[in-house]
Amino acid sequence: MIAVRQNEIPLKIQVQPLDGTGGIWFGDIDIDLVAFRVTCNGGEVRMAIRYYRLLCFLAQHPDKIVSRPEIIANTWPPEVDILPHTVDVHMNRLRNILRSAGSRVHIKTVRFQGYKLVCGPI
For a surface tag, which of 42, 45, 50, 93 has the fewest beta carbons within 10 Å of its beta carbon? Predict the structure, then answer.
C-alpha cells in the first residue's frame, strides 16, 4: 500500500474514473484513487509516490504517446527543475516495479517522442 497524504497528489492529475468509483483500470493493473493503492492481479504493488504519480498519468492516456515535457508538466511540481533524462530514469524504475509485480502492462519507449503505456507481450 502507498502511504501518502491526499494533498501530496498533484492537482494536475484529475482522473475521470471509468465507472465513477475512483479507479483506473488498465490491463491487469487497478489504481484505487481514493486509497492511493495499486494492485496487479489482486496483489498489492508497493511503490513510492513518484511512481504512483507517473503510473496514474500514463494510465489516463492509455495507448497514447506522452512526451517527456508532458510528463514533467503533469507529474512534478512546477517549481522543480527536471531534466528530460530524469524522466527516463524514473520510467525505467517504474518498468521494473511493474515487471516485478508480474504485470502484462508495460511502458514502451517511442524513440524521439516519449512513452506509451501498453498491455500485452513486450
Answer: 42
